[in-house]
Amino acid sequence: MLFSEHVFGTVIKGIFLNVNHRHTQNKLNGLFFRKMDAIHSFAREGEVNNLIKCIDGGVSVNLKDSEGRTPLHWAVDRGHLNIAEVLVGKNADINAKDNDGQTPLHYAAVCEREAIAEYLVKQNADTDARDNDDQSAHDLCESDWPFLQLPAA
């Protein structure tokens, strides 16, 4: 177990077990949320070097924000193919769902990020994944990208 995983485990326990030392709990909670904010911010803003430092420091590439978005969701949303490649290379869950059930591929379709969508499909993203409204990425895409077409039954 990495030190940071231990710290995050302690933070999670502190949140749910109501740590008796309020000062300690506040410090740990602050550390957790700063780390969470950092990795999402680096992915969102395309800061590849800082993103890699964050990951190498033990922050999970699959950490979710309050809306259930992973750094990969943010990279796709903002059109950062290079960040998406780094995250996938570091074992990001390519089919992670946010609170609305949308995967990074859904984001690529909605945001018209064709190059990223094609990359995700080549990395085995689930083209038939459905969100909470039973919509696939293909359903949400305004363009007719052939790589999003489902095979004929």
UniProtKB/TrEMBL annotation:
Repeat positions for ANK: 67-99, 100-132
InterPro entries recorded: Ankyrin_rpt (IPR002110), Ankyrin_rpt-contain_sf (IPR036770)
Domain of life: Eukaryota
SMART domains registered for this protein in UniProt: ANK
Gene Ontology molecular functions: fatty-acyl-CoA binding
Keyword Iron: no
UniProt keyword annotations, A-Z: ANK repeat, Lipid-binding
The protein's name: ACYL-COA-BINDING DOMAIN-CONTAINING PROTEIN 2
Upper classification of the organism: Eukaryota, Viridiplantae, Streptophyta, Embryophyta, Tracheophyta
